[in-house]
Amino acid sequence: MSTIFREVSRKKQMLSPAECAEVLQTVLRGVLAVNGEEGYPYALPINFYYDEAAATIYFHSGKTGHKVECLTRSDKACFTAYTEGERKEGEWWLTIKSVVAFGKVEKVSDRKVIEEVSRRLSLRFTQDEKYIAEEIEKYIDATLLLALKVEHLTGKVVREK
After folding, report:
1. How many CB atoms lie within 10 A of CB 124?
2. What is the CATH superfamily name and number for domain 11-86+93-111+144-155?
């Protein structure tokens, strides 16, 4: 493992790989950070689909735009997802789980993969299969599917107290 990827410093707060996967499979949105222009990072909220078996986080996008330009210059990215937090009875503070993934982003060109991942991502928001199929058919040619191949994944739990 590269020394640029750091472990969680407070080991007691560290999430297990299974807990990290649970966050990525249940949270609907996260923040994708890419290398922007002139050294400025570019971070944007985005919905996603996590394939644990492939250690890949998928995002859909238009084929042009700032994010695509940034990823053309540098394929390195960081993605953060976190829970809304939980407040247990008698506690004023929230307990939040967060996951940070580092990796390289690549464009997916296989139409069958684009369709399947688009369907799985959509199922996170609605179970209306007819609607999903119509939307995929309508927008498939304009959709860019991006895959962040996870190289390093960490998670932690934070109690805001």
Report:
1. 16
2. Electron Transport, Fmn-binding Protein; Chain A (2.30.110.10)
